[in-house]
């Protein structure tokens, strides 16, 4: 198909599309109103072809990997090409549909017209600070069903021929505790997809639509072949892993069988327990696909572009109605706990089959903390929401990364201390590495962090979206387990409490919440650690001398 085109032109188009997603990302951060977007980067952007094949995906949450193709195909099912007009932007937060996650994640999809023909779609999915529901921030640890979590928006045209649908905008505003922020983020996302559309139109004007399509097809085909080549380095066979997810006194077994053969890699989650009632720790099938895709991309390596081709060898299967494929009306607001565990299962199953590529288990949860309370500002309240980094597992020949975001965090950051203390009645008393015992090995698991929140208002609600996996991060080859994340609450009267699982906690002035994220698992026997590295561990204060392994 591409032989009639200059290969240099095709490569320029491919790289230009990657640069376009970078520009879409930057446009969003520069114009958004919510700190969850412009500081934390809790969003992602992408481009698909007219059929919904992923062409390029920019920085942002890895948890949103591969969701844009699903969203575009769902859009086309609702609005066939003949019903789309230049300037239309479709919007949804459907958590059960293709590419769905939870209600906070608003997706915008824009068709790109060139000479009356749709040649591509530009997409942006971002976490809105509040979409209603019973709890501030719309992320609830005890919602009974999806209706308690906020506004559900099916696929609708929020912009028609470039004009905002004012009636829909007023509905969105009325269902948020932070309406001005919601509208600001809507326009930031719209600016992003419009920027992407403009750049694609410029490409087509310069090189032609046929060359654009050829470049997209070539890039996807080349990436698919690269992925298959990388996969041939993994020994054929079936690899298994299982774990237990716990929530509110209940638990469910989760498992995966990963089969590598001449056809590709299949992740079969059959045998996973049914969903935990309608509890918010369940996740939908769209999230499961993203989870498996994240682990698969890590296995393939950073050389492969993120497009439809890299996932061509991957098949994911799971029966409906499990904790990974929950049915309506299950609450889904902390779905990312289930997604993280699903990705970790695939990772664990393949770790010993690909020891040069995948490290031991990491802290897994995103270390998310939400603090909300009264405010003199718009809406009468503040809502602070941020993830936190933790420890990653050690790998073959290297210690685990310290203070790094979790597998589904991607490029996310926590909010700078100065911004937290300037914008919210919260004081960060401590931000440091956690040196608790755990993760020992020939190569040590990385340290998590300590982040201490002091409350400077009369009352506040804190949601600590902790680790709902029963066990600690796993080690490899006699390496020790890491540690579980926890939230320690020190009351003004001196009393203390510890929460490992997700919890909503009422705080008052003078109370302190101390988040400690987990440490990664170790790799290899601790006694085989290089004595010089042991000495460095002690000198750096990472390991007390009394706990250092004896010299080999």
TrEMBL record:
Sequence ranges assigned to domain Hydantoinase B/oxoprolinase in this UniProt record: 6-526
Segments for region (Disordered): 517-552
Top-level taxonomic group: Bacteria
One protein family per Pfam: Hydantoinase_B
PANTHER family named among the record's database cross-references: 5-OXOPROLINASE RELATED, HYPOTHETICAL 5-OXOPROLINASE (EUROFUNG)-RELATED
Stated name of the protein: Hydantoinase B/oxoprolinase family protein
Annotated organism of origin: Pseudonocardia hispaniensis
Taxonomic lineage from the root: Bacteria, Bacillati, Actinomycetota, Actinomycetes, Pseudonocardiales
């Amino acid at each position: 198909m591409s032989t009639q085109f200059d290969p240099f032109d095709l490569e320029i188009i491919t790289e230009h599309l990657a640069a376009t997603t970078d520009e879409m990302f930057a446009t969003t951060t520069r114009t958004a109103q919510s700190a969850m977007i412009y500081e934390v980067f809790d969003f992602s952007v992408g481009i698909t072809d007219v059929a919904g094949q992923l062409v390029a995906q920019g920085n942002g949450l890895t948890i949103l990997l591969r969701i844009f193709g699903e969203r575009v195909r769902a859009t086309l099912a609702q609005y066939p090409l003949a019903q789309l007009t230049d300037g239309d932007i479709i919007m949804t937060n459907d958590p059960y549909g293709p590419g769905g996650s939870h209600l906070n994640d608003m997706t915008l999809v824009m068709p790109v017209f060139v000479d009356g023909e749709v040649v591509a779609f530009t997409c942006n999915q971002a976490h809105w600070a509040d979409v209603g529901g019973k709890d501030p921030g719309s992320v609830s640890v005890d919602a009974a069903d999806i209706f308690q979590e906020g506004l559900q928006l099916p696929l609708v045209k929020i912009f028609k021929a470039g004009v905002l649908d004012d009636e829909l905008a007023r509905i969105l505003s009325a269902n948020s505790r932070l309406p001005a922020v919601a509208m600001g983020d809507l326009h930031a996302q719209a600016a992003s997809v419009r920027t992407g559309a403009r750049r694609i139109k410029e490409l087509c004007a310069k090189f032609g639509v046929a060359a654009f399509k050829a470049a997209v097809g070539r890039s996807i085909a080349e990436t698919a072949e690269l992925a298959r080549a990388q996969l041939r380095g993994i020994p054929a066979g079936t690899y298994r892993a299982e774990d237990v997810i716990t929530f509110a006194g209940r638990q469910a077994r989760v498992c995966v069988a990963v089969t590598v053969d001449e056809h590709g890699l299949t992740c079969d989650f059959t045998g996973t327990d049914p969903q935990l009632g309608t509890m918010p720790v369940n996740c939908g099938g769209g999230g499961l696909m993203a989870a498996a895709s994240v682990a698969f991309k890590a296995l393939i390596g950073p050389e492969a572009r993120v497009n439809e081709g890299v996932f061509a060898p991957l098949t994911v299967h799971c029966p409906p109605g499990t904790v990974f494929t929950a049915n309506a009306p299950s609450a889904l607001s902390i779905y990312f706990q289930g997604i993280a565990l699903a990705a970790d299962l695939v990772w664990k199953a393949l770790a010993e089959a690909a020891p040069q590529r995948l490290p031991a288990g990491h802290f897994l949860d995103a270390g998310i903390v939400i603090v909300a309370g009264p405010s003199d500002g718009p809406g009468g309240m503040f809502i602070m929401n941020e993830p936190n980094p933790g420890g990653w597992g050690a790998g073959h020949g290297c210690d685990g990364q310290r203070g790094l975001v979790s597998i589904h965090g991607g490029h996310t950051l926590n909010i700078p201390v100065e911004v937290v203390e300037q914008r919210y009645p919260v004081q960060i008393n401590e931000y440091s590495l956690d040196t608790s015992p755990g993760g020992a090995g020939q190569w040590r698991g990385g340290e998590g962090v300590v982040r201490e929140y002091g409350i400077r208002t009369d009352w506040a609600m804190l949601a600590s979206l902790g680790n709902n996996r029963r066990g600690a991060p796993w080690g490899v080859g006699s390496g020790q387990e890491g540690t579980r994340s926890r939230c320690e609450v020190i009351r003004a009267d001196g009393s203390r409490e510890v929460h490992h699982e997700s919890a909503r906690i009422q705080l008052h002035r003078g109370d302190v919440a101390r988040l400690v994220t987990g440490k990664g698992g170790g790799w290899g026997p601790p006694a085989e650690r290089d004595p010089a590295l042991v000495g460095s561990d002690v000198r750096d204060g990472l390991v007390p001398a009394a706990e250092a392994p004896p010299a080999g």
